Amino acid sequence: MPETLIGSSVLERFLRYVTVDTQSAEGSKTYPSTLKQLVLLDQLANELRALGLTDVTRDEHGLVFATIPATTKKSNVPVIGFIAHVDTSPEASGTNVKPIVHRGWRGDDIRLPDDPTSVLRVAEQPALKAQAGNDIVTSSGATLLGADDKAGVAEIMAAAEQLLKHPEIPHGTIRIGFTPDEEVGGGTTHFDIQRFGAAYAYTLDGTTRGTMDTETFSADAMIVTFQGFNTHPGFAKGRMINSIKIAADFISRLPKGELSPETTEDREGFVHPYVMNASVDRTSVRFIVRDFATEGLKKKEALLERLAHETIAGWPGATVSFEVEESYRNLKDVLLKHPQIIEHGREAYRRAELELREASIRGGTDGSRLTAMGLPTPNIFAGGHNFHSRLEWVSVQDMEKAVEVIVHLARVWEERA
Ligand SMILES: [Zn+2]
Q: Between helices 147-165 and 396-415, what is the axis angle to 10°?
């Protein structure tokens, strides 16, 4: 690897990582869901080795783990971890990303050159308004940017480089983890928390500067399958039962003014149909179900079952079946048992001249699952906005703050041990 690629700023790293297409895919038979993610994972493993981290591994599933050796004389400093995901969302193209740095952005609308409809309007982007004077990175408008979560990857890499360059900063052993497939709910499928070896961890996958996500949705996936009956359409009278029409009937019965992503905010949950596999014989509708309270999930699933049964009552001969799978659970309950994770975070933010704002994320992160698996992991801001969209953006100054927070966290955990 050329020497110049090793020691570089968080921005240079970020611009390098976003040009690698790492889009993950729903319903893939492979792990990672797309093999192209391995290109960036391998590149990161090489960069980590070149920076001088130890125990750098890229396992058969693609996960990259590495160690920043301790510099402290204390023997009781807990091992802490920093984690980010390399994949980008299947919801927007990640092929041929052309990042643009709008240096010293002056506060006017940002038109993205590759698509006339891609305009970041300040009036519609309150978080952008606060960034006047900063350096804003966007895509060219044809793709997403990939700040989710390559901002987090770049921040962890830049912080690792700083800690290695400054052995006079006392800190305990620090573990780093880069994962594939977070966007398709598989980021932790093969994450071995024993082998990772941290007592506590932080994902860098949040949004606005100063926030820490200490609460997430509880989440299930639910598949509602309607079974009809197919026969030759020329001879179908009285025999054919078209499951596509049944599914349409069912969808039309979903609540319209509530319980959907487009009608809820803050602490409200929802049911969200997002993929259909349709044929006359059999049609399945995939839902995600979300609520901050786990009992709330059960209520929403019961509602879907009731609506589906009411639907097929009008279609003699049709049947319906349901599958529910747990996706992740609200991490707040576990974090309350380990208050130092957030307290040390608060101190690290303070030293970076930020006030920590605890946030409830209307989604989940790798941290939600890791917490459930026994590695308590809240989510630190990485600075990106408009995730999964061609209007995604991040400011360089916010990425730099996240790097500072990581370095301060390493220090604070050592001091307070
Ligand atoms: Zn993410």
A: 50
Instruction: Convert the pLDDT of each residue in 55-82 to its tens digit.
Output: 999 999 999 999 999 999 999 999 999 9
pLDDT, position 185: 86
pLDDT at 194: 98
Taking alpha carbons only, the member of 76, 53, 75 closest to residue 64 is 53
φ, ψ of residue 308 in degrees (nearest 5) = -70, -40
Cα(377)–Cα(9) distance, rounded to whole angstroms?
Answer: 26
246 Cα: distance to centroid of ligand 1 (angstroms): 35
Residue 327 C-alpha to ligand 1 middle, in angstroms? 15
pLDDT of res. 2: 43
Spatial distance between the Cα atoms of 109 and 210, rounded to a whole number of angstroms: 24
Q: Please identify every stretch of the chain with a pLDDT value under 50, giving residue numbers as ranges.
A: 1-6
CA of 336 to the centre of ligand 1 (A): 23
pLDDT at residue 53, as a whole number: 98
Q: What is the pLDDT of residue 249?
A: 98
Nearest to 149 by CA among 100, 217, 206: 206
Residues with CB under 5 A from ligand 1 (ion): 148-149, 205
Sheet (strand 174-179) strand order: 54-58, 64-68, 174-179, 80-85, 200-206, 379-381, 211-216, 357-361
Specify whether the backbone of 240 is left (phi greater than 0), alpha (psi in -120 to 50) or beta: beta
- CA-CA distance, 144 to 97, in Å (whole number)? 7
Residue 369: predicted pLDDT: 86
- Give me 25's structure tokens: 């895919």
C-alpha 246/C-alpha 284 separation (Å) is 10
Read out DSSP for 58-93? E-TT--EEEEE----S-S-PPPEEEEEE--B-TTS-
Give catalytic residue positions.
87, 182
Say how many Å lie between the CA of residue 40 and the centre of ligand 1.
16
Return contacts of 234-241, CB within 8 angstroms, 24+ apart. 240/280, 241/315, 241/316, 241/317, 241/318
CA of 365 to the centre of ligand 1 (A): 7
